[in-house]
C-alpha cells in the first residue's frame, strides 16, 4: 500500500474514532455557512441602483434590475463625496482609537493587579462586581447612564455637593462630553469581563518560574515585568490585532441608546449613519455599500496589524 493510501486510511480511521467531536465541529461549520457565508450573496445589493425590501434577492426581477452607474461603484463614490463623510469618519476613528488606547490596556492592568491579590475571598468579590455590568444590555445601562447624567441626576448632585459646579448640566445634550461618556461607560461595562482571558493566560504560566525568580531576589514588580507580561504576550498580541481590525466598529448598541440630535455632531459614527440611511431614508443599496466599505477597510487594517506584529514579535493570527 502506497503512502497516499496509508494517509487516507489513517484519516478515515481518525475520523471514525473522533466522530462525536467531528459532529460537534460540523455543527459549528454549518452555523458559519448559514449565518456568515450564504448571506454574503446579499452584498450584491451594494452594486444595484436601488434595492427595495419587497424584492426577493433570488427573484429574476432583482437579478435583472439595473446596476448602479459608474461600473457599480456609484454608492461608494457618493459616500466618499457625502457632506457628512469627514464628520462620520472623525467620530468613528476618534472614539475607536481612544478606546484602543484606554479600554484595551486597562483590562491587562486590572488582571495583573487582581492576580497579585492574596485573599481569594476579596478577589472573588472584586471579580464578581467587575463582571456584573457586562451582563446588562446597553438598553438598560443606557437608561441608567442617561438618568445619572441628567441635570438632576446622581453625577450633578455629587458635583454640586462637592462644590465643583453650581447648577446641574445635562451632559448628553453637549457634544463635547459625548466621547468621554462613551469611553468611560464602555470601560465600566467591559473592564472585568475583558480581564478574564488575561487572568486565564496568567494562570497558565508555570509557577516554578516565579519560585526561581524569588530565589534570585526578584520583587513582585520585577516578576510581573520579566515573567507575567512575557507569558501573556501572545494573548495580548492576538487580541490587539482583533481590536485594530474592529476600529471602524464603534459599538452601535451603546451609541444608539446615548445618541440624540443635540450630541449628533460627535455621536454620528459610521454605524449610526448606516442605520439612518437604511431605516429612515430607506436607501438600502447605499447603506449596504457603506457597510461593505467599512468591512473592506477593516480587512486591510487586520492584515496590516497582523503583518506588523508578526514582524515585531513573531506572533500573528496567520
Describe this structure in words.
This protein is an all-alpha fold. Helix content is 69%, strand content 0%. The mean pLDDT is 89.
Topology:
Elements: H1 3-17, H2 19-37, H3 60-63, H4 74-81, H5 85-102, H6 105-115, H7 120-131, H8 138-148, H9 154-161, H10 175-203, H11 207-215, H12 220-231, H13 233-245, H14 252-258, H15 264-267, H16 270-280, H17 284-313
Helix pairs in contact: 4-17, 5-10, 6-10, 7-10, 8-14, 13-17, 16-17
Short description:
With 318 residues, the chain is mainly alpha-helical.
Number of separate helices: 17
Shape: globular
Q: Give the SSE string.
A: HHHHHHHHHHHHHHHHH
- Rg from alpha-carbon coordinates: 25 Å
Q: Portion of residues in helices?
A: 55-70%
For the residues shown, what is the average pLDDT? 89
Number of strands: 0
Task: Report the sheet with the most strands, covering strand number, pairing sense and barrel closure.
Answer: none
Helix/strand-derived class?
A: mainly alpha
Low-confidence stretches: none
Through-space gap between termini: 35 Å
Q: Which band does the percent of strand residues land in?
A: under 5%
Amino acid at each position: 500500500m502506497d503512502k497516499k493510501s496509508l494517509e487516507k486510511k489513517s484519516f478515515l480511521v481518525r475520523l471514525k474514532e473522533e466522530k462525536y467531536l467531528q459532529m460537534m465541529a460540523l455543527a459549528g461549520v454549518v452555523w458559519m455557512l448559514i449565518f456568515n457565508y450564504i448571506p454574503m450573496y446579499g452584498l450584491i445589493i451594494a452594486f444595484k441602483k436601488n434595492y427595495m425590501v419587497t424584492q426577493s434577492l433570488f427573484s429574476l426581477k432583482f437579478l435583472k434590475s439595473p446596476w448602479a452607474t459608474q461600473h457599480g461603484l456609484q454608492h461608494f463614490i457618493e459616500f466618499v463625496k457625502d457632506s457628512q463623510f469627514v464628520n462620520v469618519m472623525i467620530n468613528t476613528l476618534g472614539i475607536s482609537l481612544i478606546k484602543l488606547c484606554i479600554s484595551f490596556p486597562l483590562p491587562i492592568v486590572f488582571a495583573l493587579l487582581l492576580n497579585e491579590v492574596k485573599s481569594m475571598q476579596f478577589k472573588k468579590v472584586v471579580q464578581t462586581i467587575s463582571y456584573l455590568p457586562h451582563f446588562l444590555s446597553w438598553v438598560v445601562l443606557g437608561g441608567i447612564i442617561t438618568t445619572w447624567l441628567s441635570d438632576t441626576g446622581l453625577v450633578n448632585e455629587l458635583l454640586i455637593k462637592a462644590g465643583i459646579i453650581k447648577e446641574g448640566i445635562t451632559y448628553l445634550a453637549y457634544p463635547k462630553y459625548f466621547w468621554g461618556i462613551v469611553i468611560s461607560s464602555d470601560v465600566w461595562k467591559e473592564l472585568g469581563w475583558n480581564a478574564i482571558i488575561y487572568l486565564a493566560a496568567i494562570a497558565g504560566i508555570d509557577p516554578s518560574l516565579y519560585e526561581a525568580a524569588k530565589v534570585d531576589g526578584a520583587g513582585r514588580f520585577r516578576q510581573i515585568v520579566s515573567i507575567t507580561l512575557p507569558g501573556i504576550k501572545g494573548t495580548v498580541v492576538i487580541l490587539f490585532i482583533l481590536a485594530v481590525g474592529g476600529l471602524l466598529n464603534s459599538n452601535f448598541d451603546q451609541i444608539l441608546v446615548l445618541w440624540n440630535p443635540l450630541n449628533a455632531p460627535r455621536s454620528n459614527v459610521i454605524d449610526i449613519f448606516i442605520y439612518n440611511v437604511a431605516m429612515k431614508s430607506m436607501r438600502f443599496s447605499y447603506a449596504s455599500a457603506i457597510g461593505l466599505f467599512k468591512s473592506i477597510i477593516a480587512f486591510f487594517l487586520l492584515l496590516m496589524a497582523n503583518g506588523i506584529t508578526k514582524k515585531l514579535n513573531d506572533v500573528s493570527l496567520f
